[in-house]
Specification:
mainly alpha; 4 helices; 75% helix
């Protein structure tokens, strides 16, 4: 793919020019999801297997995010209790500091994992709905 700005050859899959950084061929980039869904779900010989995989991802994401959310609130409550204890007791302040940091790290790690599973869940739903819309449009024609 040739850049219109600097006339340098780039790979076909690139979104930006390697030389000048300008955006390349936005039409092709917008059609990528549609072509991907047509190729892998609607027109594929293994479309039922692919839909099963997407539905399995939905189930796994929801099943994994529930205990993570429960543990998220438990970790936050324990961390807040440790902060309150360290504020009231001067002797155990340094001993509680490491435990408090550990629970706050656990809390933030759980947030990251829950967000990852929810993003994957939402992306999976978008692909399934979009494939259904494309299939109904194809059947109407």
């Amino acid at each position: 793919m040739r850049c219109k700005n600097c006339n340098v050859n780039n790979f076909d899959n690139t979104k930006f020019c390697y030389n000048c950084g300008k955006i390349l061929s936005t039409k092709k980039n917008k059609q990528y999801l549609k072509n991907f869904i047509y190729k892998n779900i609607i027109l594929s010989k293994n479309k039922y297997r692919n839909i099963f995989i997407l539905l399995s991802i939905l189930v796994l994401c929801s099943a994994l995010s529930v205990p993570l959310c429960q543990g998220l609130f438990e970790s936050l409550n324990i961390a807040i209790d440790l902060v309150n204890m360290s504020m009231s007791q001067q002797v155990a302040k340094y001993a509680l500091k490491s435990q408090t940091e550990l629970y706050f790290r656990d809390f933030f790690l759980r947030i990251i994992m829950v967000l990852f599973f929810w993003l994957l869940f939402i992306f999976d739903i978008v692909i399934l709905v979009y494939s259904y819309v494309l299939k109904t449009q194809k059947n109407k024609k």
